[in-house]
Amino acid sequence: MTRAEEPGTARLDGPEGGPPALLVRGLCKSFGGNDAVRDVDLTVAPGAFVGLVGPNGAGKTTLLSMAVGLLRPDAGNAWVAGAPVWPAQDADRAKALLGVLPDGLALPQRLTGPELLTYLGRLRGLPAPVLRSRVDELLDVLDLAAAGRTLIGDYSTGMRKKIGLAAALLHGPRLLVLDEPFEAVDPVSAAVVRAILDGFVAGGGTVLMSSHAMALVERLCDHVAVLDRGVLLRAGTLDQVRSGHTLEEAFAELVGARPPARGLSWFGS
Questions:
Q1: How far apart, in whole angstroms, are the C-alpha atoms of residue 121 and residue 140?
Q2: Is residue 60's pLDDT more than 70?
Q3: DSSP readout, 17-62?
Q4: Could you give one GO CC term from the UniProt record (predicted)?
Q5: Which of 69, 123, 223, 247 is 20 to 30 A from 233 (CA-CA)?
């Protein structure tokens, strides 16, 4: 077993030169004595589109939250283009380079989408003409312009995902970290989001995205990292992780998933 295959350690390398888009070293987190993330190392090269996959409860959200500064780790740190995420008071440069879509993002219920984006843009210090242009373009591309006067509290779940993605993209980040960005998004909107993310990577950006949808990860991502029970089992290019199988088959083998030996007893009775 090479070091790239050792539990807790992985590299997702690209062209050399300059710091990684994201460097994670020794991240750990436990809750009530239970390890949610155990000593995870991960290196993501600029320009990579990485899918983070794992069973429910594998620690994906916990890992991503620590890597972007939303959850304080028990140990370890993360760096965005060489800038530290922790301690929080030293993370201004890292946060300027990050666009984040957390799972279960809490949004202000009494603002409209344009009001939210304008507020966030002003906090970021974007010049007024640039801000207006970006807000209009994001709302148009994400098919939210017609809901310009609708309060976010009245948004559907899919609309909330899209306005959250707009907020993550607004300031022009170089690294997007997205937790289940396609959950509850309709097929038409999903195609738009895929096109946006493809364009972001084509323009030199980097994406780290968690998802349960293996077919989606295979379609979008060029690298995959597999997390189970807080341990990073394997990471590499899509073909390296699949090893001649489908991603779903390789994933099931890595995490030791087995189909049930029999169906429910009352079926067929």
A1: 17
A2: yes
A3: SS--SEEEEEEEEEETTEEEEEEEEEEE-TT-EEEEE--TTSSHHH
A4: plasma membrane
A5: 69
Instruction: Give the number of other CB atoms < 10 A from CB of residue 178.
Output: 24
Longest dimension (CA), the chain: 69
DSSP 131: H
Q: 17 pLDDT exceeds 80?
A: no
Burial group, residue 181, by CB count within 10 angstroms (0-12, 13-18, 19+) = buried
Using one digit for the tens of pLDDT, what is the confidence trace for 249-265?
A: 999 999 988 777 777 88
Token couple for 107? 């949004």
d(CA 24, CA 10) in angstroms, rounded, equals: 10
Strand order in the sheet with 75-80: 11-12, 34-44, 22-31, 75-80, 83-84
- Measured CA distances, 184 to 10, 79, 159, 187 (Å): 30, 31, 9, 9
Please give the structure tokens belonging to residue 188: 């038409």
- Is 77 buried (19+), middle (13-18) or exposed (0-12) by CB count in 10 A? middle
- Residue among 174, 42, 188 nearest 100 (CA): 174
> How far is residue 10's CA from residue 227's CA, in Å, rounded to a whole number?
11
- Identify the burial level of 266 via C-beta atoms within 10 angstroms of its C-beta, where 0-12 means exposed, 13-18 middle and 19 or more buried: exposed
CATH number of 3-254: 3.40.50.300
Q: What is the pTM of this model?
A: 0.91
